[in-house]
Structure formats: C-alpha cells, structure tokens
Amino acid sequence: MIQRAKIILKNIFGYDDFRPLQQEIIENIIRRKDTLVIMPTGGGKSLCYQIPALMFEELTVVVSPLISLMKDQMEQLTALGVGAVALNSTLSSEEYGQNISRILRNDVRILYLAPETLLMPKTLAILSSRRVDCIAIDEAHCISEWGHDFRPEYRQLVEVRKQFPKAVCVALTATATPGVQKDIQICLDFEASNAFIASFNRINLFLQIAPKTNSVLQTTEFIKKFPNQPGIIYCLARKQVDDLTKTLTKAGFSVKPYHAGLPDIERRRNQEHFIRENVQIIVATIAFGMGINKPNIRFVLHYDLPQSIESYYQQIGRAGRDGLRAHCLLLFGYSDIHKIKYFINQKADKEKRIAIMHLSALIGLAETGNCRRIPLLNYFGEKYTKAACGMCDNCASGQKTLCDLTIPAQKFLSCVKRCDEIFGAEHITDVLRGGKTQKVIKFNHQALSTYGIGKEYSKQEWFQLSRQLLQNGLLLQDMNHGSLKLTPKAWEVLRGKELFLGKMEAKPRDITPVADSESDCDQALFERLREKRKELADLTNVPPYVIFPDKTLIEMAVFFPQSPESLRSLHGVGAIKSERYGSYFLEIIAEYCNARGIPEKPKTILNPESVILETAAKRRHLIVGEAYNSGKTIVELAADYNVKRITIINHLYNYIAEGNALRSGNEFQAHSDLTLHLQTEVLETFKKLGTEQLKPVFEALNEKVTYDELHLLRLYYLAGGKCSE
Ligand code: ADP
Ligand code: ZN
C-alpha cells in the first residue's frame, strides 16, 4: 500500500521521499482512521490528503476557508495533471456549472469547498449522489473557540460528517497549542491516538537576531545578499512600511508595500506581483501573509520587533516552505521595546499581564547566547535536545567552548561605569571603539580613559559580549531605555577576583545565505532557467512555482540533465510536468552545456529507500555502457533509446567516469570527421590537460574543434584510443 503511495509521490508530484510523518499519516488515512495532523507551515500538510485522494476510488472533499489558498492548490494540482475543482462564491455561474458537471461526470478526484458552500443544501444534494471517500478539513483550528480564528460554520461540519458516515475524516492545522488540538478532536469525535504532531522545528530556516543599529543600512546590506530572490520585510506600522518602501525603491530595489491602509485593489495587485515574481520584495505589516502559499520565499526580515514569539514564528514560517535554506533576520532595538510597552500600557490588567509575558519571552529569545531553537521550541512546548543546531547565529558563530574574556569584559564594564551607568550598549561600544558620534561629543566622552581602547573588536562583537554580560548577571538593563548598570558580580570581575568566560570571535563572521549543497549550482544557467520558468508561467497565467519549484531548477543547474529520463530523476519532476515543460528546459540546458563542454552529472542516490523508486533513468548510463560492451554500436543505441548520438556519448562518458571499462573505442574514431592529424592533436591535448573539462581543451586548440568532436574523441581517448598517422 505504501509502495503505491511512494510511486504516486514520485510519478505525480516528482518527490523522492516523504517528509517527516507524511507516510504515517497517509497510512492511517488509507486504513480509514480519522486523523488529526498538526504540522508547522511548510511541513507538507496538503500531500497528506492529496495522495490518499489519488488512492481512493471516489471523491475527496477538502474544506478550506481561504479562497486564495484554494485557488493556489487548484493551480498546482492542475499543473500536476490531477483532476481537481473548487466551488466557492468567487466563481461565475458558468464556471460553477461546469465544475458541478465535472463532479457529476466523475471527472474529479479532489473537490475544494469553502465551508459555507459545503453547508448549502444544493451542494449536499450533489455530494450525496456520489460516494465520498474522504473529508479533509484544512485550517481545522477554525473549529475551536480557543483558536485565534474561530469560524462558526466550522462547528456545523460535524453534521456534514454524519451524512457521510463511510468517509474518513482528516483535520489539519498548524496551530500548536494543546487546548486547540484537544478541542478539534472532541468536536470531530476523533480518537486521541490518531493525532500526528510534527516537530515545529523548521530546520531549513537560519535564525538571526541582531541589535538594531542603523536599520536602513542593515536592511540594504542584508537584502543585497539575495539578488532576485523573493523576500518579505515586516514592519510594525503602516507609515514605516510606506517610508521604507520609498527608501528602498530609491536605492534601486524592487519592492512594493502591503498594509491595511492601502486600497483593496492596490494591496491585491502588489501581492499578485510578488507571487508572480514581477516584484522581488514585499514590505508589509502583519496584515500580509495569510493565504500566501509562495514556497520560495528566501528571507524574512523583521525591521521591527514582532508582538510575540507566536507571531514571530508564524511570520518566519512563511520563508522556505520548499525546504531550501531561508534566512530570517530580526533587528532587535530597545526603542522598539519601548514602543510595544507603550501599547501594552493601554491595555486592561489581565491582557496587560499576558502581553508582558509575551514580550519578555521574546526578549529572552533575542538575548540568549545559546542556540535560538532552545527558547523558541520551548515556547511551543517542545524540548530541543541538541546542544547546537548550526542554523542560528549563535550556533554558527562556531566557537563551541568558552574562552577567557576577562579583559574585554573589564573594558566594557569600566566603560559603563565611566559613562555614569546611563547609556545603552550602543553608546558604550561607540566610546570603546573611539567613535565620533554626536552623543560622544555632546558628553565629552572622548576624554574618558576608556575612549578608543576597544578597537580590536567589531561593534557586533561588543554587542555579543554585552548580551553575555547581561545574561550572566554582571549587568542590569533598564527595560525602558536600554541603559546598563553594574551589579556586584561585575565588580568581582573588574577587581580581577573573578574570570569572565564567554564566546567572542576575533574576526567578524560572515553568514552566507547559500547552503553548501546549493553552492554547486551553476548560477548563470539557473538564471536562464528561471527566466524560462517565468515566461512559461506568464503564458499560462500561474505563479512561477506552479511550473517547477526552485529546487528543481537548482538540480537542473547542478546535474545538467540531457535527456527526459535524467530530467525525471530530479526533484519535483513528475510525469505530466516532464511532458509539458521538460523540453523547454532541456533545450536550454543542452545549449548551455554544449557551448561549454559540460557533461551531465548522474544524480546520486542519497536515501536507500528511494532506490526502489529508481527508474532506469538514473542508471541509464550503466545499461547503455553494458549494451555497448556487448557489441551494440552508438548508432544502434541512439535508435534503441530514440535519442541523439551525443546523448549516448554522454552516457558512455558517465559510464567510464564511474570507473567502468569500455570495449576498444575504434568506433568512436570512425565517427569523427577530423583529419587524422587533427585527431592526434586533440588526443595530445587531452593527455596534457586532462579530460575532466572540455573548455580548456577547446581553447588550447584555438576553438577549431567543435565540442561534439571533443566529446567523441574524449571517449575514444579514455577507451584507450591512440592516433598514429
Ligand atoms: P503546509 O500546508 O503544511 O504549509 P504545503 O502542503 O503547502 O505545506 O507544502 C509546502 C511545500 O512543500 C509545497 O511546495 C509542497 O509541494 C512541498 N512538499 C510537500 N511534501 C513534500 C515532500 N515529501 N518532498 C518534497 N517537497 C514536499
Ligand atoms: Zn542554534
């Protein structure tokens, strides 16, 4: 059974492996056990009911409250060749009628419905004429009054369920609170044992929290690291959104604003531009994000402090849904805390207490010197047991062991003292580094003995140290102004009675936005592929990610597939997409590779479990190599596989490159159109320069031999061929 699910996973969706819990959930649903799915955003909830829907014989009904998400799912499923329709209030009566007749014709596997549409007697009548195998309830927290998004229609879904007693029910949500989880189970009458709760740790998100110093400069420096890559910048207030949008536009960035103060039509248009990749960055208030399914958001920048860890988590959760690395940077400023406190103080007593708790949890997250995932996951009731995640600023700073920082600590503490304990870390750092800021001049701090004694460390490093001094109780910070004061513990260190141990690097760290596994990617080719994707997307009027996810394009630019079979082995390439779009991309890759003499690289199999799914594609070069050794000719093989001669030559090269022997290569020589004299020159050049790269050979021969010939003669050379005139 699960084997079939895996085949669907590869053939339809083009994915090699299940994400955590997907397999268990699918198995449970197929056994017709009601299932509660709790997974963070981007965890892959949709697949949990879409695969069973394709395994069941009859209809799967999906209840979804957000029409934009419904539209997105429809586009994606249609591109995958899955029969799916939606019924909701935005359809014209003609579209509505067409969709209904498709349902009645049995032409549809998955039906998306808004809850209010499902509850209409008309809809129920249509459904009762068909067998319903599965009812999936997306955003299931809407059923609970405890949830942040309670919808009364959701309560009535229980009645609908009763009308289809044979249908298995799946409820899905990203809400982590146990109260809501329990409520969903009770409302829908589930057994507790059928809840699947995934970890809320999103391992592909790089978490960084940096002190806010010069926020505009920090923002531009940050987004420069992501040329052409989609991202969101969150601000607290509408005005801030407008101002920052103007500044960034002036600086030449591609940005659009989004907040509740903009006219509906403009807001929607900006969102659409972002999704379609006409615009790179959205600057937004928290109003932005619900109903956005864009999987390739590569960064989220919090320009201002979010209101709670929950909203921080929800907002960063919009990044990297495709599982590729995404960078989340929060600029943490004490003046922001001041602003939030001001809002909090307007609240009633009970609300105030809760808000203060939320805020201090957030400050704890920002100030920790340990792995950020520890307080973050802790907040959601999950224990993070690893000491270091390697994917947050604190872990990436590399230094695992504590070192003796007594001297810099003494410098910092005495500077705090000499500045009369009324300044924050920023000013102290300016004094230590000998800065000539207005404040330094105003208070005549260049006359202090601690002025300019700390140039050996960067601003960031001094901030890092001050955080550790705070955490270790050597400093106290005024919550309103951020000013620092010494504690008795600090005096112990200042007087040299105690050592101070902590983490600080000598060099500023550079956190690169690209993961190692992606750094093999040929950027120039990737850009070309992305342009093609955009062109195809615009032609069919869908967002680019519906054509292929980023990861597919990256794999194309890593493995350079030269045939439909190799293309099929890549992430995200199922049968239908390969047929519809494959040739466009293969053409670009072939042209690019031929001009540069880049051979196809076989995609290595990382997970032994996926071997069973291996089509002959990845191993094609082995089959071709063996067939050649058993006596087949290149021409025969090209005909057998209905491919060009160069494809066979590439397969044979991969065969040899993996260490296999080929039978004598006289045939290769026979295919060459070069004179014997020139052939000899080519072979000698290979001998001199090696065979790994063709470009140097091409150039050494003054570009007079084509790449096709070089491919051929390289094979001849590797198969032991020699030339004699
Ligand atoms: P959620 O609804 O939980 O936020 P989605 O269902 O939208 O998440 O999935 C997020 C992204 O992950 C989508 O682009 C989806 O195609 C992709 N995805 C889901 N399952 C897998 C998988 N097993 N392998 C690779 N990608 C997957
Ligand atoms: Zn970490």
What keyword list fits this structure?
725 residues; seven-stranded parallel beta sheet; binds adenosine-5'-diphosphate; Arc Repressor Mutant, subunit A; 10% strand; binds zinc ion; 5 domains; Rossmann fold; 35 helices; alpha/beta; single chain
Specify the helix fraction band.
40-55%
CATH top level of the largest domain?
Alpha Beta
**CATH architecture descriptor of the largest domain:** 3-Layer(aba) Sandwich
User: Main sheet, how many strands, which sense, barrel?
Assistant: 7 strands, parallel
Number of strands: 17
Q: What ligand molecules are bound, each kind once?
A: adenosine-5'-diphosphate, zinc ion
Approximately how much beta-strand content do the residues carry? 5-15%
Structural summary, described in words:
About 4% of the residues have low confidence. The chain folds into five domains: 196 residues, P-loop containing nucleotide triphosphate hydrolases (Rossmann fold, 3-Layer(aba) Sandwich), CATH 3.40.50.300; 192 residues, Rossmann fold; 98 residues, Arc Repressor Mutant, subunit A; 83 residues, HRDC domain (DNA polymerase, domain 1, Orthogonal Bundle), CATH 1.10.150.80; 103 residues, Arc Repressor Mutant, subunit A. Helices cover 49% and strands 10% of the residues. Helix 24 crosses helix 26. The radius of gyration is 30 Å and the shape is globular. The protein is built from 35 helices and 17 strands. It has a seven-stranded parallel sheet with strand order 3-4-2-5-6-1-7, with helices on both faces. The protein is α/β, with parallel strands linked by helices. The structure holds adenosine-5'-diphosphate and zinc ion.
